[in-house]
């Protein structure tokens, strides 16, 4: 059995955590366009391990998804508690005598504890956050960068592919 090389694995982890370096070979307004460019390079058997997609001009966007009320908080807590109770009740039922009694007990206890666990933080907020939301990170653009040795080739392949780019890089950046 072949053992993984710890030196190689650690270098891959370190490479992922470092700020990416290389020469820009294309800039795209959406991640999907940048991904399509890298996919095209892969289809042309370009060594894509020399490519990185870098999100530039990052912003955090919080989309408000709804109003939060006591009824929603209590119902949500009860529902999530009930699901946890189903799980615990089924586990107890599998390893014990009978399954209906542990299941019903688990659901009831889950509803009680879930409701309490949802109500306490909401009450503590004293109405300062009466809405639900989801947060995402969005980039203003996505740059595809490549190692200097292969940047010119990557840039030319992307330019010839017809994938919509915000701009194509000329040789002035070093490629």
UniProtKB/TrEMBL annotation:
Pfam families: YflT. Keywords: Membrane, Transmembrane, Transmembrane helix. Residues 25-98 form the General stress protein 17M-like domain. The keyword Protein transport does not apply. InterPro entries: GSP17M-like_dom. Residues 1-20 are annotated as: Disordered. The chain crosses the membrane at residues 73-96, 102-124. This is Magnesium transporter. It comes from Corynebacterium poyangense.
């Amino acid at each position: 059995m072949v053992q993984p090389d710890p030196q190689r694995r650690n270098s891959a982890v370190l490479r992922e955590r470092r700020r990416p370096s290389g020469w820009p070979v294309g800039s795209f307004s959406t991640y999907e366009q940048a991904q399509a460019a890298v996919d095209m390079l892969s289809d042309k058997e370009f060594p894509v391990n020399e490519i990185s997609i870098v999100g530039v001009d990052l912003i955090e966007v919080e989309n408000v998804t709804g109003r939060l009320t006591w009824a929603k908080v209590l119902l949500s807590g009860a529902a999530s508690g009930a699901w946890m109770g189903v799980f615990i009740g089924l586990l107890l039922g599998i390893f014990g005598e009978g399954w209906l009694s542990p299941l019903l007990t688990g659901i009831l206890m889950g509803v009680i504890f879930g409701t309490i666990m949802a109500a306490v933080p909401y009450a503590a907020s004293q109405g300062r956050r009466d809405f639900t939301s989801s947060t995402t990170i969005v980039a203003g653009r996505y740059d595809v960068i490549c190692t200097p040795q292969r940047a010119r080739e990557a840039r030319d392949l992307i330019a010839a592919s017809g994938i919509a780019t915000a701009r194509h890089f000329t040789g002035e950046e070093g490629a």
